Amino acid sequence: MKKKVKARRWIQIAFFVLAALIAVNHTLAESGMAIPFVAEASLHAVCPFGGVVTIYNLITTGTFVQKIHESSLVLMLIVFGAAILVGPIFCGWICPFGTFQEWLGALGRKIFKKKYNRFIPYKFDKYLRFLRYLVLIWAVFITAWSGKILFADFDPYYALFQFWTGEVAVTGFIALFLVVLLSLFVERPFCKYACPYGAVLGLFNLIRIFGLRRNADTCISCSACDKACPMNIPVSGQSKVINHQCISCFECTSTDGVCPVAGTLEFNTAALKGGKDEN
Amino acid sequence: MKIKGLTAGLTFIVLMIGGIVISVATGYWATESSKEPVKYETGDFAGEYNPADIRGSYSFQDIENTFAIPVETLAAAFGLSGEENPEAIEIKVFEDTFGIIDGMEIGTDSMRYFVALYKGLPYTPEEDTALPRPAIAILRKEGAQSADELAAAEAKSVTLDNFTGESAAAATEDHDETVLAEIKGKTTFAELYDWGLTAEQVESVLQMDAGPRTQTVRDFCMEKGIEFSTVKDPLQDLLDSL
Fold this sequence. Notes:
heterodimer, A: mainly alpha, three-stranded antiparallel sheet, 13 helices, globular, B: mainly alpha, 3 domains, two-stranded parallel ribbon, 5% strand
């Protein structure tokens, strides 16, 4: 593992701890025992997806849906801005629930070795990946319909960081259990098949400024990039990788990740030197 | 131009911190609802906070900050002086703490009613809203209400000695779903329709077009300058008749 991908690990840990601290502190604040210098906001208030589901309400009534505030909208815009530049880097570097699944995945990898994350043939799997758009449509629709964030009742992320509060629905715990179980077989199952926010951010892969480009002239076809990709994207078969599932983790690249040939796989604004964008 | 992972990660963090700092500096950043009720726009009380807009999420401290009623007075009025952090008590706990006593309810509306009387501000409480006896005693000594208003409040008083700990939720356990469809401050138009009312029925009570589905009826009333309590009961009657 190269040094800079280790940086991703540290940033992931930092944001996981931050999210956990905010969640715990919100509970403590309600009983007047808040930890000094830690935000007392609710988890909903610091979730950028809240900004997405409240848009309809903002347009039609000028108000936010219950439990969502201006902070969610600000964070949503920041994440969108970053996604225009480098794609869903929020998913790969920041999202605490993605990090949680990666940690479970490390356990799954020890159990299943090379078979891990390869249980579902990609020719079928690539269609299953569109399920998260159905979840997105449903989450936005029921929020617009009810004015409440009903998705929280099915949200494993909310269940993980609020399990002690008594506010988590049984369906949330079931969703969390399923994600934990599936993470032992598949890397980031929630991100791949069900995350509505990942679905939104995934679309930015189609328009991102820094695209993932492969130089076919220098590529030695070792397929290390394919094996390293947590989202099972067949990187080695394309010159310009445009895939709605990319999470900008940089694990495949020659700048930070597993690609052994310098200048062969990079996030770049133009075709790599000596190569060209073919698709 | 290429970008490396660490650069991308740090750029995101800088963007995030910068975005938050800018939104804080411009006063847009908020992680909770504003704890300031709307103000009367016209009439004798123009410019003063309207107790009708007090929300369940307000704490006693928020009430003190906006209506200048000391936390100690509020705690004494609702029999909560013995609590460890009375300033942090949120009004929404009333429903679970007191619930229904003698068929009347001590809830968020009780605080609205108490504040209105204490400050001498106009407010029509909901029909089943109750005030605890200590609140009446405080109003008698310190309230700015008229004698008639005090008499009306006394008629809505309940004694906390009779408080059995039976919560509103427990009290409705034996009732069917129709009874559970109870209009509260956070009830949206969508919920009214989900419970079986038609848009025509709702509009006949409002005497105007209803608001968007996701808007609460109370917010709609505030926006249109209607007392929520004047539409709540007719709507509840319609629901009960379903």
